[in-house]
Design a protein that fits this description.
This is High-affinity zinc uptake system membrane protein ZnuB. It is found in: Cell inner membrane; Cell membrane. Involved in the high-affinity zinc uptake transport system. It is a multi-pass membrane protein. Helices cover 83% and strands 0% of the residues. The chain contains 13 helices and no strands. The chain is an all-alpha fold and 270 residues long. The chain has a single domain, classed as ABC transporter involved in vitamin B12 uptake, BtuC (Orthogonal Bundle), CATH 1.10.3470.10.
Length: 270
């Protein structure tokens, strides 16, 4: 126990443990983002996180819970608006993403007594990880991984062929809502790691890198987790030795791995 306490008292090890926890859950969920081509949707939910932070201060609830609630409300609003067919889905996503971000910033400006580190919120503050943050990260990651393991077959079927899944009796709409809930949880726990503006990158880049090497969906999920671990470990090391921002350094490391894998695969095939 003294050894564990010593590790948790060191800010670098807390950052590493928290980052690995996010990579653990961002890997499999990022695969669904890539498979379903939901990158813009994930970006919209990430932008709404700042509005969730403002909501948390207004009604005095934990920040992570406020972000989850706001993401779910925004996702449901998108579903309702998309049914009207008045605007294309990508147009709606753009409107909601930037409006939520702007409303969050404006709302926070009306709270002079509330001190918020906007740079940390937008780009992450990995080195300021606390024990409470670790609880949120691993609690949220555990919930999402259990849901993914339980619903894996239905989620995969509805992703590969939605109409066939409906014929087989898979509750496609219900699974889509559960997937949105999982996105909301991951965005809430990843916010501390890479910030509102870079969350989608952490979801997409390791999964896209894994796709190049994977032989089946399960293999891709495992590789996405590994590339996420590489991004977190490499990004933290880069930040430690070069004094660069931790969150962006994680994304840069993920991107470098992406370039290496796609460049190397291209040479092999050539």
């Amino acid at each position: 126990m003294p050894i564990i306490n010593a590790i948790l008292d060191d800010f670098f090890w807390r950052a590493l443990i928290g980052g690995l926890g996010v990579a653990l859950v961002a890997g499999p969920l990022g695969c669904f983002v890539v498979w379903r081509r939901m990158a813009y949707f994930g970006d919209t939910l990430a932008h709404s996180a700042l509005l969730g932070i403002a909501l948390s201060f207004v009604i005095s609830i934990p920040l992570n819970l406020g972000v989850v609630i706001t993401c779910i409300i925004l996702a449901l609003a998108l579903v309702l608006f998309s049914r009207t067919k008045a605007l294309a889905t990508d147009t709606l996503l753009g409107i909601l993403a930037h409006s939520a971000l702007a409303i969050g910033l404006v709302t926070l400006s009306f709270m002079p007594d509330v001190r918020v580190d906007l740079t940390g919120l937008l780009f992450g503050d990995l080195l300021a990880m606390s024990r409470k943050d670790l609880f949120w990260i691993y609690g949220g990651a555990g919930l999402v991984l259990i849901l993914l393991a339980t619903l894996w077959r239905g989620l995969l079927m509805s992703t590969i062929h939605e109409e066939l899944a409906r014929v087989e009796g898979v509750p496609v709409e219900r699974l889509r809502l559960v997937l949105v809930l999982m996105f909301s949880v991951v965005i809430a726990v990843a916010m501390k790691i890479v910030g509102v503006l870079l969350i989608t990158a952490l979801l997409i880049i390791p999964a896209a890198t894994a796709r190049r090497l994977a032989h089946n969906p399960e293999h891709m999920v495992g590789l996405a987790m590994i590339f996420g671990f590489v991004a977190v470990t490499g990004g933290l090391s880069l930040s430690w030795y070069l004094d660069t921002p931790a969150g962006p350094s994680v994304v840069v490391t993920a991107f470098m791995a992406f370039l290496v894998v796609y460049g190397g695969a291209g040479k092999v095939r050539g």
